[in-house]
Fold:
Amino acid sequence: MASVVPVAYLGSNTSTVVPDWLNKGDNAWQMISAALVGMQGMPGLVLLYAGIVKRKWALNSAFMALYAFAAVMPCWVLWAYKMAFGRKLIPFWGRAGTAVAQDYLVPQALLPATLHYNSTGGVETAAVQPFYPMASMVFFQFAFAAVTVMLLAGAVLGRMSVKAWMVFVPLWLTFSYTVGAFSIWGGGFLFHWGIMDYSGGYVVHLASGAAGFTAAYWVGPRKKKDREDFQPNNIPLTLAGAGILWMGWTGFNGGDPFSANVDSSIAVLNTHICAATSLLIWTCWDVAIFGKPSLIGAINGMITGLVCITPAAGLVQSWAAIVMGIVSGSVPWYTMMYLNKKSKLLQRIDDTLGILHTHAIAGILGGAMTGLFAHPDLSSMFLPVTNSKGAFYGGPGGVQFLKQLVGACFIVGWNIVATSIILLVIRFFIPLRMSEEELQIGDDAVHGEIAYSTTHTHETEHSSMPNGTSHRDLENQAL
Structure:
């Protein structure tokens, strides 16, 4: 440990720059992980959404993601963080409270955590009481909450009212996300029951997929023309966003042991093994069935692999990560590319980016396979699932698989009900859908801006446009 250097701090109080309880390595890794997760949202998902949608929705899609990222922060520190990770109010929900007080974020003293010894006798930081300020944890968990809401947006792009979205974000964070987070991570009933969700396969991805699909039902479909012709406007931009998303997952899964230990290294390696395997399998299916590889398909395969490994990242051996990659590159491919076209229900509900397939289905697969492949030794490193193991390792392991399925049912059920209630309440005051004019025109009608402008367009607008003709009219004619 570094030596203690006394300094004046918080007025007349005295503390230390480097108190003897602080593990600088763990703190640095946690802040880096938080930044990596945050970058998955901003700019990762913002760029991905801006590029993967039709041109007239590029700005609106990016704005919905950007707004969600910003709106979550004040809600998070003022009440939502403690609802997810604070004192119990009821078995599946925490008591609201602020997380902005200095004595909470940077405590003057911290009781030593119980040391955790790995298999070689080395000492590691215990997951439940890390050696760093609470401020690092609040920021890390904020990034998860923000990304979850941004993922949800992918199901309703191209028609949800911006005003309705602006109200929906804080309400959904408060009444839906915090429930799943507290139940599984924050000490709720699923936590004590032993549900395994290493880094958010249920809390983040299953929740966003189930809620997004539900929201798509209540908001209604895009215009028929948009559903039939919704080609990405900028695939290289989409790829840039996807690349940030992939590399950012290093912090998404690697930061969840809450320390820079053996388990975090295993989680990072497994994350990339599964993602790469899933991408390759998805691409192979595209070539086998359609005769050519698809870049958008490869991105979908990457995402399903990342989602699938998330609940298991630090709990399974690397051979299992390969198996999970094969499954996550196959099952969601089938549901998206084949079942989606055959099912009347799936055709009726317009899930713009297929969040149901890439996040909900992949999340359920990951959670279920965690119940199969979680290794006893690796599980013991992750304190909330100590003494748990997957069915593959015999004994009572089969019970864990059933628990995982029950946990998935709770997350799906709660998100369907909570999301429906929130949107029905909003609908009393604000239309959930854009106006017909906005649906027809797109970004220019909604924001007064367009994603791609040319010199010729500006010259026409300012010098040669006939009286009474607006830039919006020209855009409308061009569609």
Notes: The mean pLDDT is 87. The domain at 23-107+134-227+241-427 is CATH 1.10.3430.10 (Ammonium transporter fold). Residues 11 and 102 are 12 Å apart (CA to CA).
